[in-house]
Amino acid sequence: MKRRIGVFLYILLLGLCFPASFSAAENTTPSGIPIDDLEEFVDDYAEEYIGDTVAGASIIAIKDNQIVLSKGYGYADVENQIPMDPEATVLEWGSITKLFVWVSAMQLAEQGKLDLEEDIRTYLPEGFLTKLNYDDPITILNLMHHNAGFEDNIFDLLFDSPEHLVSLEEVLKTAEPEQVFKPGEVVAYSNYSTSLAAYIIEEITGQPFDEYVEEHIFEELEMNHSTMHLPMEDNQEMEFQKGKGYFPGENGGFIESQPFYISMYPSGGINGTATDLAKFAQALMLPDSENTSLFLENETLSELLTTSYAPEEGVPGLAHGFWEYDGEYRGLTHSGNTVAYSSNMQIVPEDNFAIIILTNQADEIDLLFGLTDKLVGRGGQTVQENLPLTSEVEGSYLSARRTYNGFMNLYAYLAPLHVKPINNNEIELNLAGFKATYTQISPYVYKLKSGDDVFIPSNVMYFHENDGEIMQISTTYADYLPMDKSKPFLYISLGVFIWCVVYFLINPFILFVQAILQKRRKKKILMVTKWNWILTLSGTALAVNIVVLIIRMLNKPMRMYSELFPHFIGNYVFSVTSFISVVVIIVLWRKNQLSKVRKIGYLLTCVSSILFIACLIIWQMYS
Predict the structure, then answer these.
(1) Is 92 helix (H, G, I), strand (E, B) or coil?
(2) pTM score, two decimals?
(3) 3-state class of 473 per DSSP?
(4) Which of 29, 147, 181, 236 is least enclosed, having the fewest CB within 10 Å?
(5) pLDDT digit string (tens) for 141-180?
(6) Residue 399: what are its φ and ψ, rounded to 5°?
(7) Residue 438 above 70 pLDDT?
(8) CA 129, chain centre distance (Å)
(9) CA–centroid distance for 330 within its chain
């Protein structure tokens, strides 16, 4: 008995003398930063970017279900010097909104109203989906995993006026993308899939999706400063508290963005405070002793956060719509981007830690991913022996998340992913000028070693190999597929396009000079010459139409399809006119005595016109 009392007193005395040593391991971020030093660390990190590359940010860190950091950086309104406030400043969460769709789906699955493995057509009106190319069933899990097979479609997604907003059902019908992959085979991040799942929830509950989320998530978690209802101007209090969104300006300034609106709102429509998002994160990491308020049973919450898809054992995948992250501990994350806001939320259930970052800056990456990476750390890099040669994965790849039908398909070819070996175990990735080095740690599994912050979300890549050929690359948010067009073909296509545009923009001036000289010499204008004029002007109109289309898309990529429809009609009209002109010129060619110079000129115009039309057909510039 005395021995037991002695041991107890020894342990008690040891704890009193060295309390810090017992708590230090737990009272840190997953990467090992002491919580007591967290604010200073974040301050120092944010100082490099706030006011320079980002207007403002709300940052919240959670440890053991307690908020250990909540701070605003920079300005919610640059012009009026209104500071960012995590508790008061309303910002757009972007695609983090998708997590509320998946939580809603799991709620209904728990109640037996939704089967995650049932064909979604069971829940949809008859004939709702009209562009499916495979008979295989599409399940809710496919929608969660973004592998239902849909191509990307940016049209009719964002609008610059609330007048264009339509119901969720209507936008899903008008903006339906083509199914280009067999369900389950390729991961390609899809706004459409998420909003389709939300519509299925509407069909099951008979309740608008925003109202469902308000009742079953926002109210349950007391998220009183968030809304999914659009347009947000209907809520004057929240509109007053909303931080302005910005684009980077010249010389380090910021350009205020105009408001944008989204009919497919379940994919990115929530406006709210960082504090409200923290409540959501806390609800996902409840202590075992507490009952969840999101579900009827805690087991459903555990199931939600369990891996439901992985491309390969040991490679991060998805947990029912949450993206897995290979950090010091397993992380679950989702980021978001709207026109002028960006966000990131990552929870680390194994370490009871979460980090939330909301900014009023378009396409911000240094805080969202760079800071998160510093706080959650990265997984180990134990390298196996006798690994495949890095030369096997060399090549150029295109994101599976892209448009396959219509002229927007060419955008993917402007920024392919280039992979080249550095040595026997390392490769360099180059994506639109951003570079990173990856190390092979197991057969065809590569981990990020160093590089630009844009690669942090995809810090693990898996190359699918079959008989020595790479079939696809699994990364976060989208797989990559081998380039389907050779470099010579792409260079030739670009050269032909540039030649045709320049030729038809310059040639009318040359013909005009020739016409003036012909008039002075009082020479009769031949019929073949008139048709050559028609052919040239048709080509010029076609070139101008295409150039204007490109400029408009570069100026504002997110447009209604109806805005571009006149361009496509113009392409058809000018192309048909050009084709008819070529046929007529060929017919009249033999009936007229033409000089060699004219023959060469007419032949050059005909060939250029044919090449131009062929180029437009290949790159689908007619739709």
Answers:
(1) strand
(2) 0.89
(3) strand
(4) 236
(5) 999 999 999 999 877 777 777 888 889 999 999 999 999 9
(6) -65, 135
(7) yes
(8) 23
(9) 23
